[in-house]
Known about the structure:
The chain is mostly helical and about 500 residues long. Helix content is about 75%, strand content about 0%. Helix 4 runs parallel beside helix 8, helix 5 packs antiparallel against helix 7 and helix 15 packs across helix 17. The protein is globular, with a radius of gyration of 22 Å.
Amino acid sequence: MTVLSKMWPILILLAVVVFVITRLPKIDVGHDDRFRRRRVWNWLPLGLTYALLYMGRYNLTVSKRAFEEMANADGAALMANADFGVIFGVGTIVYGLSFLINGPLTDRFGGRFSILVGAGGALLMNLVMGLASLSLLHQGVGNEFIARNFVIVFSVLYAANMYFQSFGAVAIVKVNASWFHVRERGVFGAIFGILISLGIYFAFDLGGMILRGMGLAWVFLMPAILLGVFLLIDIGLVRNTPADAGLENFNTADASSGDDGPRLGAIKVFKMMMRNPVIVTIAIIEFCSGFLRQAIMNWYGIFAKQTDAILGLKDSFVNENWGLLLCCAGILGGVVAGTISDHVFQSRRGPVAAVLYGVMLVGAIVLTFTYDQFFVGWLVVIMSMAVIGVHGMLSGTASMDFGGSKNVGIAVGIIDGFVYLGTAVMSFTYAFVLPGEQLDAAGKIIGPATDPANWRPWPLAMIPMAIIGLILGLRVWNAKPKGKSAAH
């Protein structure tokens, strides 16, 4: 099946989304048509680069399908469940802590600088992981060393990749903070959710097609090539502010509104952000989002494959179209969250987070008792819609609102850092509590992982995070940014 034939549901959904958004009541903040056109040519290549960074991030999950069927020197799976949890966990810790460096760098040098560094670095690390995979497959240079030290080698390479990946979210939010008024940012949150969702599709479904059609190494090499193309496009089109593109800057009415003073030092801004109860609350909510989002995205496919002999989920429509359905769910979640935030809750983000976390909590409780039923795939797709909606709304929008365009790099760094610290906790938690797998003489997975009864910790661990996220979402129900100037 060609990429285009698989993408038609996404294209139809995007067409419907565009139609609905263009028919909503306009929020007029004074932009003319020339400004709006140039803004599209700014965020579109930037956003597609961000989506391709996702492809070069979750390709590790796709590669597990092949690595777990390769034996190491001891005859065990080259990348078992625990190994995957460790490699992904190390990478997400690095991502989560990178904001200490990358947030201040982005505020100082701008989002354009950060997307170029992030895309260039991720390109390089995906190239190296692709070459390492090629070496394993074809007995190349370093084959024996990589095979014997697989977890260490890929932990180091993936951690370096995730350092550069961490520039992506900071860059896209930093740039767009100067291009979107606070009253438009709910819609941008929807755009952010769509871009995340396209990245998930590129990673899982397109990555799966590449794995089946071109081989393991290309799961890493193809994102490197595509990132190289968009790196050149970004150099030509992306600009930090409207003024850099020959237009006039405007008052965005966020937390930086009216702040014409000198730029504060990174440590001072960090302390200021960490004393802001709304920023801290949003960061903790997003910690929970990081745990829940990746618990579903990374582990459902592994669960379906390893328990297939009993549950028969491997060849189900959901598992076969996992990236497509996550993409559609993410688009719907982002659009619903952004639209009701701007048009129902007067651009407040807390109510949307609370409502969607309510959906997550109900879903996690139901999943605990029905994870071995035929409809489990559709249930986790609905849960993904909720959690991607929250993530786009808080990391992509609330970070702009409460950080302000002046200090948004550090603000989104803190918030997105917490997302991936939550992901790291998830990775190490599941590396410890989920069942292990073994290979028989034919390379077929056997052992505890094939019994669905051993997977109950998977949904159980989601419930506490959903409860915390719901309670904290209710705490910021009425929160709105307050700048030094009230001008709009």
